[in-house]
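Progress against Task 2.4 (sequence-to-structure conversion) is shown through the following example record, which the project officer requested during the mid-term review.
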Amino acid sequence: MVLNHSDLHHVVIVGGGFGGLYAAQKLAKAPVRVTLIDKRNFHVFQPLLYQVATGGLSPADISSPLRALLSKNKNTEVLMAEVTNIDPQRQTVKLRYREIEYDSLILATGVTHKYFTNDWEQNAPGLKTIENALEIRRRVFIAFESAEKESNPEKRKDWLTFVLVGGGPAGVELAGALAELAHGTLKEDFRHIDTSQAQIILLQSPDRILPAYPPHLSGEAQTSLEKLGVTVKTGVRVTDITSQSVTYRQGTTLEKIRTRTILWTAGMKASPMANLLAQCAEAKLDSQGRVMVEPDFNLSKYPNIFVIGDLAHYTDAQGKTLPGTAPVAMQEGEYVARFIRNGLQKRPLAPFKYVDWGNLAVIGKHKAVVDMGWLQLSGFLAWFVWLFIHVFYLLEFDNKLIVMIQWVWSYMTKTKGARLITTPGQNPEIKLEDEYETVIYQPSSEVPHCLEVGNR
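Structure tokens generated for the chain above:
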């Protein structure tokens, strides 16, 4: 049964991340009816996921219920559901339990991790969701607890070796946080191990970390990481990952690192929604699986379907492809909302122009890099700018307040208060057998099937 409760123009938004949420908020007072659909009932401030992964913040500190965020938007309903099919001809999206008609459809389902082989995902979790962050936190602290109980020096060293694959902002921030955790926060907590002896190794395929930044800022970031005790290896390519080792190639030489904790902060690929659009709406995809969109973010054959955020491949007037960052998704969401609203009111809208506020990456306490084009900073001032901007963009006041209090407390006491080992549905186990491996979170890689138009 197809439900249609109003003659108002119906905007369906799939995805409650930055792009989808900002589009919904911008449509709050428009003469439309809005339905926002997401598989989870909350929005996550993804730039701070690494702090959840290292015990600095709790999941609720960086998350906000979607219903609470949109409760004052009287024209908006929120559905916790998963879109399984899209029929562009009939203008419907299919959920598991019903179909919903749309007049305009905004897709903002983001990206997921891209591995060279499927086997690696089990042994090297990525960092895109709350579940990812909790799984990384579990593995990190299980490693220290296992090392504390291990009497074999070689096996203890394996537990105290942490390897991160990928030297972009996520890898740099996570590596710095792990170094501060091991070499500072935990130093007095254990009796049989010296956590400051932990090795944090960052592997990067390009010849420098943070390749999107100017070379001198990348160099300063690497220097800051090395001062924290992180070993940075650039110009290397990972060739194999198992539950107990990482193998990489540097030039013609193969090297193997024995480790029990491997974290993936490298490549990304578009969510399965991109493949669904390619099947159902003849959308063109780029090499990363992102959807190629028109200047107004719609599809060439279906102008009432819009794709924004990390899911979209958008090329600006200068021929530059916009990066998959939160500010890009926010501005795209707001633009598409204005485009729909102005179209209904027969008012013209200026072409989209992205305002680049720059790139930021934090390396540790008092250490960050900021690239705003006209302003490039590193060190303490950059760290202060990073703190201010991240608190500013947190959506709810209580989140802003809690995060500020947590950061001040952590700064003064050098502690992290969310160092919990949690395993959903069961008690955590600590085993020392070599074959032991537990995977709590395995994102589904299943791609929804396209509806066959004409068979309905």
